[in-house]
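To: structure desk
From: M.T.
Subject: fold request, one chain
Message: Could you run this one when you get a chance? Sequence is below, nothing fancy, just the single chain.
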Amino acid sequence: MQGYLSRVWTLRYFWWALVRNDLRKRYRGSAIGMGWSLLQPIAMTVVLCTVFCQIFHADLKTYAPFLLSGLTVWGFITAVMTQGCQCFFSSEAYIRQHPAPLAIYPLRVTLGASIHLVLGLLVVLSLAWCLHGLDNLRVLIGLLPALMLLLIFGWSLAICMGVVNVLFQDTTHLTEILLQILFYLTPILYPADLLRQRHLAWFLGMNPLAAFLELVRLPILEARLPPWQAFALAGAGALLPAAVAALLLSRIERRLVFYL
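Reply: Done. Structure tokens follow.
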């Protein structure tokens, strides 16, 4: 594994050039460029805040940054899963020409989504500071391990989705259905405490996405570091798909080109 990751790092200029090329192609000729990646979660936040604050009398100052942070992290998960399904097909020309580690191409997808994630979190920080002040500067250091775990989790998910989709090309359509279900099972629109009050805390323990949301939300919204249990759950949630991804690549990497 160490040697494999070393080969990936050796080719860092190659996969970073792929990421930059993807961003240029996506936003070429656009008036606001990467701002379009922020428009969807911001628009959803405005609409949902209007609805929930009117119907359920939610506090706008609290609910708006809470919802925007959840939608930002969810956008990252959605991107790595959906784009990860196509990462090997979209890179088929490179795969056939150069025997580079295949993990490079899911990493290409993950890094692109990570850039959008960081931009989205900067907007969340700006909104939280405007509404609540700058009380969380010291604890923002807690975001660094959270972002690292999200990167590992996203890269592993993209590898798994890409390999499975090469072998079973209905995976893309099944992923869209799974994401719709998972969206409502994850505390994005509602606080996790709502499940705990209904004695459903065990459900949060089974959902690593809830831990990732907690790692991101607590430093930004509540100006405190997440508990070690959240880090432990998120770490386990990142390492499990990483182990599956490593197993899949070890079994099929040399033969995957024949399925493309």
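Reply (cont.): The chain is about 75% helix and 0% strand. Let me know if you need anything else for the meeting.
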